[in-house]
């Protein structure tokens, strides 16, 4: 199944990326004062799938590991907006660059020798440190459910949102075993299982609500209602 199709079908998709700890710490300070304050970061990679996820489902969760010294996800936030190839829309680019952290505000679009290095401006809010950091290899790729490679560097990846990051070692081994089973299935068989495995959705389905209404007895009084209307009532449309 193509990643674009997965993005459309999965409303629980999230984004994983790397950034420098000093920039993320600045973002945390800003968010502590105002969680809704927008904060703009740059990337030399085109975040086309992340943009599609926001256009399809709105605000997304974003996870960060720091550059260079750790394989742990230590920060998370909300991804609000993704602007691709910002040099093509200078007005929007300038508006978004106003939300950069103080230490990166003068970096522009990384212009050098007439070339623009920034391929994506991405805007986050409510950046915060995770109470219990976890290895980013515990995140599962949206494309096929496989873990993120342990040598992941500066790009980004679409992943399944984690509802509970405090997994025990036993839980992790169980999930990894289930992943291998899922990967052996066809795309048609895999999709509903991935939905159940990775999403901790407490909302009842339409079928569940219908079953509840039918068996709960709340609407039993309708069985004794007189036949007020018939097919001959009303006017034809």
The mean pLDDT is 84
Shape, per Cα inertia axes: extended
Number of helices: 7
Radius of gyration, CA atoms, in whole angstroms = 23 Å
Largest sheet: 6 strands, mixed
Distance between the termini: 44 Å
- What sequence of helices (H) and strands (E) makes up the elements? HEHEHEEHEEEEHHH
Number of DSSP E strands? 8
- As for the CATH topology of the domain at 3-165, it is Archaeosine Trna-guanine Transglycosylase, Chain: A, domain 4
Name the helicity range. Answer: 25-40%
Proportion of residues in β-strands: 15-25%
Output the CATH class name of the domain at 3-165.
Answer: Mainly Beta
Q: Going across the major beta sheet, what is the strand order?
A: 2-7-4-3-1-8
Unreliable segments of 5+ consecutive residues: 166-170
What does this structure look like?
- The chain is α+β, with helices and mostly antiparallel strands and 237 residues long.
- The chain has a domain at 3-165: Archaeosine Trna-guanine Transglycosylase, Chain: A, domain 4, CATH 2.30.130.
- The chain contains 7 helices and 8 strands, in the order αβαβαββαββββααα.
- It has helices at 3-9, 21-33, 48-57, 90-97, 169-183, 187-198, 206-216, and strands spanning 13-19, 39-43, 60-66, 72-84, 111-112, 115-116, 120-135, 156-160.
- It has a 6-stranded mixed sheet. The protein has a two-stranded antiparallel sheet with strand order 5-6.
- α5 (169-183) packs antiparallel against α6 (187-198).
- It is extended.
- The two termini are 44 Å apart.
């Amino acid at each position: 199944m193509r990643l674009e199709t997965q993005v459309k079908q999965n409303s629980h998709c999230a984004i994983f990326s790397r950034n420098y700890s000093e920039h993320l710490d600045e973002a945390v300070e800003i968010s502590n004062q105002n969680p809704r304050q927008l904060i703009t970061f740059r990337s030399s990679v085109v975040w086309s799938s992340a943009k599609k996820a926001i256009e399809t489902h709105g605000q997304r969760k974003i996870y960060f590991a720091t550059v260079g010294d750790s394989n742990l996800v230590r920060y998370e936030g909300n991804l609000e907006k993704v602007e691709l190839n910002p040099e093509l829309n200078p007005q929007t680019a300038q508006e978004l660059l106003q939300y950069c952290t103080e230490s990166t505000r003068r970096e522009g679009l990384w212009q050098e020798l007439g070339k623009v290095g920034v391929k994506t401006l991405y805007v986050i809010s409510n950046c915060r440190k995770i109470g219990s950091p976890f290895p980013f290899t515990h995140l599962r790729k949206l494309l096929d459910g496989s873990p993120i490679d342990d040598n992941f560097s500066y790009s980004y990846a679409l992943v399944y949102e984690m509802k509970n990051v405090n997994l025990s070692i036993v839980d992790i081994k169980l999930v990894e075993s289930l992943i291998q089973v899922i990967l052996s299935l066809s795309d048609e068989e895999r999709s509903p299982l991935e939905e159940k495995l990775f999403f901790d959705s407490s909302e009842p389905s339409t079928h569940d609500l219908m079953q509840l209404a039918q068996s709960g007895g709340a609407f039993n009084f309708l069985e004794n209602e007189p036949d007020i209307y018939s097919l001959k009532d009303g006017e034809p449309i």
